[in-house]
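batch_manifest entry 22 of 60
target: histidine kinase
source organism: Phenylobacterium conjunctum
requested by: lab member K.T.
priority: normal
notes from requester: please return C-alpha cells only, no post-processing; we will run our own comparison against the previous entry in this batch. if the run fails, retry once and flag.
--- input ---
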Amino acid sequence: MALIGAGADLPGMLDAIVRMVEAEDPTILCSILLLDETGRRIAPGAAPSLPDSYNNAIYGIEIGPDVGCCGTAMFTGQRVVVEDIATDPLWAAFKTLAQGAGLASCWSEPIRVADGAVVGSFAIYHRTCTAPTEEDIAFIEAAAELTSLAIERDRDRARARQATEREVEAARDLTTFFEISADLLCITDFQSQFVRVNDAWTRVLGWSRAELEGQSYLDFMHPDDREATLAEAQIFQHGHEILAFRNRYRTVTGEYRVLEWQARQSNGLVYAAARDVTAQVEVAREMEAAREAAELANQAKSDFLANMSHEIRTPLNGVIGVIDALARTELSGAQREMVDLIRESGVNLAALVSDILDLSRIEAGGLELEEAVFDLGEALGGALAMARLNATAKGLNFRSYMSPAAQGRFRGDGLRLRQVLGNLLSNAVKFTETGTIAVELDCAVTPEGGEALSCSVSDTGVGFDPTQADQLFQRFNQIDATMTRRFGGSGLGLAICRSLVERMGGEISAESRPGEGSVFRFTVPLRREAVGGEAPHATAEPAVAPGARPLHVLLAEDNLANQKVVELLLSPFDIVLETVENGAQALEALRRDAFDLVLMDLQMPVMDGLTATRSIRHWEAERSARRTPIVVLSANAMAHHCAEALAAGADLHVAKPLTGAALLAGIEQALDHRGAA
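--- output ---
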C-alpha cells in the first residue's frame, strides 16, 4: 500500500503485490497477468517466482473458454479453480508447460476495475493438487482487489499526466498562435492598460512590445476616437461583447491605421483581437466616391438628354404641328407629296428622339412599368393594323394569328407590349423586299402555374448570320454597316425591345440565315384577369363636338412658333383660344375669367409651368373654386418630368412635338376626367 500511495510505477507495484502474497504462504507461487490493448490477449504483469520459459510461453495467447485458469477467468469474468492441472480439460493445451514449471493446481481470480471491466487475473499456483478453503478464496479476492487498486491508481496518474501534457501543449499552442497571428492580439485590464500584446503590433504599428505593455492604449489612439472607445468600453463592462468596432491607432511614424475590434472579458481581463482594415476602408471610400461620381455623371447624362430632348422637340413641334395643320388644307398633288415627305421625316425624327429617351430611362432604372388591366387584342391591334398597312404598301403579304388562349383581358403593361411588337414588325417590314410577314400570338401555362404570352414575328427578308444574333440587341448596332445606308434606322429598336422584355420578366431571341429571312420570338409573363374584374378604361366621347358651346381654352406658351402650332391645330374646331406668355400671366387670366381648360408649357420666363400649376391649384383651394383641367404641353418628355407635372396638380402630360390627334385626345381626356370627378 505504501508503494501505491507513493506513486510507484505499475510494474513495481504489481511485483510488490505478488511478493507480499507469496510471503504469506511459502508453499505457493503467484502471478498477475493483464490483457493487452486489444483486450483479447495475455500480457505480462508480474510473476517473479515462475520460470521465464513458462511466462514467455503464455504471453500473447488469446483468451478463451478453455485457456488454462487465467485465460478462462479473464474471458468469462468468473473465478476459475483447477485442483489438478494434469487432468483438467482447461489445461489440455498447456499441461506439458505446467508440468515443466512444476505446477499441479491453479486458482485464478479476475481483476476488475471501477467500471466493472476485466483487465487481468490474479493466480495462485501449488506444486501439489490442492483445493482452496474459504480463507484461501477470501485471500485471493483481496489480492485481486489490491491489484485493481494499483491499476486504477496508475491509470489516474496516467490520466493526470496526459491532462497536464495536454494543458502544457494547449498553452504552448495558444502562445504560438498568439505570437504568429497576423491580427493584433492583446490582453488589457479595465484601467485601459495593455497587459500583453503580440508581435503583430510591432509589424503593423511599429511599436515594440516593451513600449506598449503596461501603457494605456488611449495614448496610442486617435484623439477623435477616444470618446467613442470609452463609451464602447462602458457597455462592454456590463457583459456585452465587442464586435466590429472600429477606431484608429497611431503608428510609430505618426500615421494612423484603422483597426476593427472583437473583444470578450474573462476573469477581470479583456481579451481582444484587432484587424488592420485601413486598406478596406480606403477601398470603400474610393468606391463610394466612384459611386457618387457615377451618380453625378448619370444625372448629368439625364439632364443633358432632357435638355436635348427639350431643345430638339421644341423646333420639331413647330415642324410637325404646322405640317399637320397644312395637311388639312386644300393642296395640289405635288404639294401634298411634299407635305407628306416632310411629315414622314418629322415623325421619324420624333421617333428617334423617343427611342433615345426610352433607352436612357431604361439604363438609368427610371422607366416604370404599368400594372393595369388591358385587352390583349385591343392593345396589340393598332400595331398589327399599322404593320399590315405598311406591308401592303410594299406589296408584301401579311398574316397574323392570335390563338384563343391569347384572347381576353390581362394585367400588365399593354403599352410596352405594343411598343415591343411594333418595333419587331417595323423591322420585319423594313428589311423585307418580297414575300410575307407573319405574326403568331399565343398564351401558355408556365411551370410555376402562371401564364406567359409568346409572340413570334417572321419575315422573308435579308436575314443575317446566326452567330451574330446577340449583336443585334446591342445599342446603335446593325450587323452590316451597309444595312444602315440601305434601310436606315438608328439601331436602337431591338436594344429597347430586349430591355423592355427583360424588365417585364421575359426573354427575347432571334433566328435567321442570310437571304432566308428571320424569326424574332419573345415571351412575357402575364396575369389573366378574372371575368368581372377591373374593366379597361373606356375612351371618352369627343369633347369637341359640333354644335356644343365653344370651349374657352387658355394657352400659356412663350415660344411664338409653338403658339402658332396650337392655334393652327385647334382652328378647325369650335374653340376660343386665349394665349399668354408665362405662368404669372396664366394665373392672372384665371383670376379674372373662367376657362374650360388650360394648356400649360413648362419652361417659361417669369413663372414656369410647374409653379404656375401649383399656384392655380392653391388659388382654387382657397376659394373652393371649380377645378380647371390643366394639360401640360412640354418638350420635357422624360418620366420624371411627367411625374413632376402630375404632382404639381396637372391632369395630363402631352409630349411635344404635337399633332392634331394627340392634342385633341389630350383635351378630351382632361375634360372627361373633370366630368368623372
